[in-house]
Automatic annotation (TrEMBL), chains A, B, C, D:
<dbReference type="GO" id="GO:0019509">
    <property type="term" value="P:L-methionine salvage from methylthioadenosine"/>
</dbReference>
<protein>
    <recommendedName>
        <fullName>Methylthioribulose-1-phosphate dehydratase</fullName>
        <ecNumber>4.2.1.109</ecNumber>
    </recommendedName>
</protein>
<keyword id="KW-0862">Zinc</keyword>
<dbReference type="InterPro" id="IPR017714">
    <property type="entry name" value="MethylthioRu-1-P_deHdtase_MtnB"/>
</dbReference>
<feature type="binding site">
    <location>
        <position position="102"/>
    </location>
    <ligand>
        <name>substrate</name>
    </ligand>
</feature>
<dbReference type="InterPro" id="IPR027514">
    <property type="entry name" value="Salvage_MtnB_euk"/>
</dbReference>
<dbReference type="InterPro" id="IPR001303">
    <property type="entry name" value="Aldolase_II/adducin_N"/>
</dbReference>
<feature type="domain" description="Class II aldolase/adducin N-terminal">
    <location>
        <begin position="33"/>
        <end position="226"/>
    </location>
</feature>
<keyword id="KW-0028">Amino-acid biosynthesis</keyword>
<dbReference type="GO" id="GO:0005737">
    <property type="term" value="C:cytoplasm"/>
</dbReference>
<keyword id="KW-0456">Lyase</keyword>
<keyword id="KW-0963">Cytoplasm</keyword>
<comment type="similarity">
    <text>Belongs to the aldolase class II family. MtnB subfamily.</text>
</comment>
<dbReference type="GO" id="GO:0008270">
    <property type="term" value="F:zinc ion binding"/>
</dbReference>
<keyword id="KW-0479">Metal-binding</keyword>
<feature type="binding site">
    <location>
        <position position="199"/>
    </location>
    <ligand>
        <name>Zn(2+)</name>
    </ligand>
</feature>
<feature type="active site" description="Proton donor/acceptor">
    <location>
        <position position="143"/>
    </location>
</feature>
Length: 238, 238, 238, 238
């Protein structure tokens, strides 16, 4: 835009310190920018109010992670933690925040599944589903199921396939979930998400776009399952 | 805006290839722009989260169709498929997307009804209604019914007319719906929409504005019908 | 903003014809602009989807009225009808629209109550309340009641006062409501709104701001009343 | 932004009168700007429609308070009241508004708890909870509880801790709540909020960010508690 600088944004980020070059980019698709944009959207959807929830994107051997205790709809790229996935050392730590308690769980997922992004929400639909189902959230014969992957073979689930998402018991500290989460992911090679009772959901995917689709489709399916329960309609068709 | 180019947008579209002139327009009412705008609105309404749903607009003998697997709220005109309705050949195909599985169904609707636009959503109200009603969604004596057309004669339904929308059984593959959808539209000359059990709704109209009104009015009526069922109030007044 | 015209808007309205000077103003508080702004807000609240509902603002002896069949969230000032309240003649009529069927009802309200604005919505809460209550919507002992006026004496209702909104039976044609609406307003000098069974609500006030507050407060109260009914809690405290 | 003034905003505020320098700032984090921004957000969340609710931020010995009867989503900094907390005199009073009836209650909170901000909403979740619970809103074993502070000792509640929010009886006039509110805050040193039966909630915190987190987390917990009640699930786990 020659001759007019009115849309130029000064990042106000000193890229010479704290590895700030890792989070300063004008590309909206850069992980640091994308996490901020998606957190605003997820806040609006009620998935991370009250600083709940979290998002991480992997970029080769680096993981970008939203910090703990941040107002998700107000996050900026300079709030971001960046970790080296080999050394597990932080390449960048914002002074004013603590690392997210989800961090070890995101690392478990990256480690076991080689996924490209993880989304964790406190979605009310997720919490309600863990109160209405026992060890698994199960639903079949709803078109939206076709947005979820089979994983154990190529392609997505069919309309009449039964979607099954395991439900873990919650722990007092988020990091204490790590062991059972790992075992659960290993035991369920066909799942792209794990529910945590009275807590929320962890969803992952090959990249942030797949993770976003899976998360939206699952939230839709959990919402309709709750409505079906209210009308006494079984969520799995016989 | 002479003297300041700050609102000038560079499309970044090379109009000399891939028939890109078909989708590059600064007119917000151009089909390629309008589909993007409406998909953003429909995403916000929860009608096409998780890449569900679809929209098509007909422009003379060309059909503009949103692609498969796209995040509907992030769609841009260059994502658009354009088909010649006579030859059924694509005039334009974006390399990175597959054609929507709704395409044959939209073509059926254009073919049988000479409509100007089709909307397909996975609206939760539509899915719930197919779980609560048998072969037809029926409602009468709600003012909003007056937004729907009679079609078999001029003008819209009256307040006390019974609105009737047929419900088709879903199929494993969306394209397999084609035959029953065609028969259903032929058998119900007074309907401007068809529900698909455990799947969603197809709505069409003379043009995109009519299709939008019908879709919004139907979603409103399905929502109130579900609430009436919750309170044990019959949706058809005797 | 000298030296940069990038925020200058060209109305594209020829003010020399069709009394267009009546609707062309850069003042956001001008009735033609305000109606457009509020219709966008009301659309978002679900009060006028599918072209339902309507808004009118009185400016001395002129009434500004949104047209029939318009997508409320897309309305522009040039869509507006303007009527001389003495002669009941249109000072301005947009060629592409029909006058709203609410027009005679808005005129009744201006005539009987000397109000400055009328809002008509198809709010689902309003429709549900007319299905759950008989001749009057009644509620007491909810703080939000204090936003509504007493009218028969100065000041607003108290917390423990019983709010009473009359419910009219609907008619096939909106204009046929005129006679019963007039009688109802005369018979209930303490009401600032009338519900219409299976249709919606008409709300009015001294000016558009008061009408907006009354409409929002009533919608809030109707929403909570429906929830109270769901839990079997009486809406009027004994 | 040299060379282009198109993003320059002229406040149109004469800072030489009425202590207007107290509310004129380009800093989005200034209390006068922040209250306006948060009121827009809270309006969208349905927490202060119909001019209900209120927000106050303390800046050293000055309290900024939103006025009475204002459309919360349209508030501007010049609508703000500013009070000296020592003299209890207004440093600034907008001519067109009355002081909020919440003012004495906000002062009670500042006085007893030395908090930095207070939020008062008419949230439907808050009102419903006061209809479904007796003297206390109680919930345990929901992850979001961990967003609330213990106060009587350092740190936040744990997952399995029981959150307890006292419920006061409402009074005809808001200011008449002052005495019981004061006693209630003194009697419950571990609470950061008080519910008022059939009215709403008062939430406070060390600063506006903490108050916002507590308010969002409480609203989330009240919403899930109502859903649990609908399904007959106890909100406190045994």
């Amino acid at each position: 835009m020659p001759g007019c600088s009115c849309h130029e944004i000064d990042f106000g980020i000193d890229v010479s310190v704290n590895n700030n070059h890792l989070i300063a980019s004008r590309d909206p698709a850069h992980p640091a920018n994308m996490i901020c944009e998606l957190c605003r959207l997820f806040y609006t959807n009620g998935w991370c109010t009250g600083t709940g929830g979290g998002v991480s994107i992997r970029d080769a051997n680096k993981a970008y992670i939203a910090p703990s205790g941040v107002h998700k709809e107000r996050m900026v790229p300079s709030d971001m933690f960046v970790m080296d996935l080999e050394s597990k050392e932080y390449l960048r730590k914002p002074a004013k925040y603590k690392a997210s308690a989800c961090t070890p769980l995101f690392l478990d997922i990256y480690n076991i599944r080689d996924s490209g992004a993880c989304i964790h929400t406190h979605s009310q639909n997720a919490v309600m589903v863990t109160l209405l189902f026992d060890k698994y959230f199960e639903i079949s014969c709803i078109e939206q199921i076709k947005a979820l992957p089979k994983l154990t073979e190529a392609g997505n689930l069919w309309y009449s396939d039964k979607l099954t998402i395991p439900i873990l018991e919650n722990t007092e500290r988020e990091e204490d979930l790590s062991e059972t989460l790992q075992q659960c992911i290993i035991d369920h090679p066909g799942t792209t998400a794990v529910l945590v009772r009275r807590h929320g959901i962890f969803v992952w995917g090959e990249n942030i776009w797949k993770a976003k689709v899976y998360n939206e489709a699952l939230d839709y399916l959990m919402e309709i399952a709750i409505k079906m329960k209210q009308f006494g309609i079984p969520t799995v068709r016989e």
